[in-house]
Amino acid sequence: MRGYHTIVLVGVLCLLLAGCSGSNQVVLKQRTTAALPGLGGAVTVRIDDIKRGQTADIQILGPDSEVLASKQAAQVGDRIPFAYQGKQYEVEVVHYRDRTFHEDEATLRLLTLPED
């Protein structure tokens, strides 16, 4: 019985760690806006139409919908740098999902850049 509890504990720990590791990511449907994680809802990202699962126009919006950064035809792997409250960040395009009968989705990751 002791070995079973150890296996269950290790499994739960793995699930918790896997869930926490994605906390800087956001998944959003095309033509929507979502808050970037870790910035208190003050900074949002807007993604327009995802074209053939390969590119999309992306905007990073600050308070009062001011445009902090944007990139036309952003591809997977592209990073969009922006500054907010004196810190430097990047939004990385991690993945586009081209869905046949549903809205296409994008997975984006917020990266905090080291201070100089």
Write up what this structure looks like.
There is one protein chain. 17% of the residues lie in helices and 45% in strands. It is of the alpha+beta class and 116 residues long. The chain has one domain (23-112). It has a four-stranded antiparallel β-sheet with strand order 1-8-7-6, with no helix packed on it. It has a four-stranded antiparallel β-sheet with strand order 2-3-4-5, with no helix packed on it. The longest helix is centred in the first third of the chain and has 20 residues, at 2-21.
> Strand pairing plus helix content: what structural class?
alpha+beta
Proportion of strand residues: 35-45%
Q: Specify the number of helices.
A: 1
Round the mean pLDDT to the nearest integer and report it: 85
Main beta-sheet strand count, sense and barrel state: 4 strands, antiparallel
Helix content: 10-25%
Low-confidence stretches: 4-21
Order of helical and strand elements = HEEEEEEEE
In spatial order, strands of the major sheet run 1-8-7-6
Number of strands: 8
Q: Give the overall shape.
A: globular
